[in-house]
Specification:
Layout (H helix, E strand, L loop, with lengths): L1 E4 L2 E4 L9 H11 L7 E5 L5 H8 L3 E6 L2 H13 L4 E5 L10 E6 L24 H10 L3 E12 L4 H10 L2 E11 L2 E10 L2
Parallel strand pairs: 3-4, 3-6, 4-5, 6-7
Antiparallel strand pairs: 1-2, 7-9, 8-9
Length: 195
């Protein structure tokens, strides 16, 4: 399916996350940042929407996703839009090297019901925080001094628990943006390394 944003045109294959309200809230937070010349990691890149947005602002972008279809879509969308993005298949930070000024992550954050198997794109385990908690334990070594994480969570995920987990892992975390939609509140959590 096609997706358009500003002057960008993206192709989003079936099974790859199609940008929605959570993507747009995170995009607003990204657009407020000075990106030129910065090293950015777009974790869970999906179709590459946020990766391309960062690259269009002059950032050096690494995009990572656990699914090969998403990584291939990101590569194709970057090429089609004349932007440079390095995309890798990675289970969180497993295959990612280097340090970044910003790490942006729109994770699977919905809690899985007892009778559901869940989909890797949406479901973050029984609490909705399993992928996020794994990410928090890994991301510190990939963040430059003074670097920031922008993490999208939902009221269904437990935003207070996510902020507490970040703070316990040596970050200083706060809510940077939020938006109420029909069944939940979406929140962008901004976290920096505590000195």
């Amino acid at each position: 399916m096609k997706f358009s944003f500003n002057s960008m045109e993206l192709e989003v294959p079936e099974g790859v996350y199609y940008p929605a309200e959570d993507s747009f809230l995170l995009a607003d937070a990204v657009e407020a940042l000075e990106m030129k010349g910065k090293n950015i990691l777009d974790m869970g890149c999906g179709s590459g929407f946020l990766s391309l947005l960062c690259a269009s602002k002059g950032a050096h972008v690494t995009a990572a996703d656990v699914t090969e279809d998403a990584v291939e879509a990101t590569k194709a969308n970057a090429q089609a839009n004349g932007l440079k993005v390095n995309a890798v298949v990675s289970d969180l930070l497993q295959n990612v090297s280097g340090r970044f000024d910003f790490i942006i992550f729109n994770p699977p954050y919905l809690p899985r019901g007892e009778d559901e198997e869940g989909h890797v794109t949406y479901t973050g385990g029984a609490t909705g925080r399993e992928v996020i908690e794994r990410f928090i334990t890994q991301c510190g070594t990939h963040l430059e001094n003074g670097g920031k994480i922008l993490l999208l969570v939902s009221s269904l995920t437990g935003k207070e628990e996510v902020i507490a987990a970040l703070n316990e892992s040596g970050f200083s975390a706060k809510i940077a943006a939020k938006e109420k939609i029909d069944w939940e509140e979406l929140v962008v959590v901004e976290a920096c390394k505590s000195s």
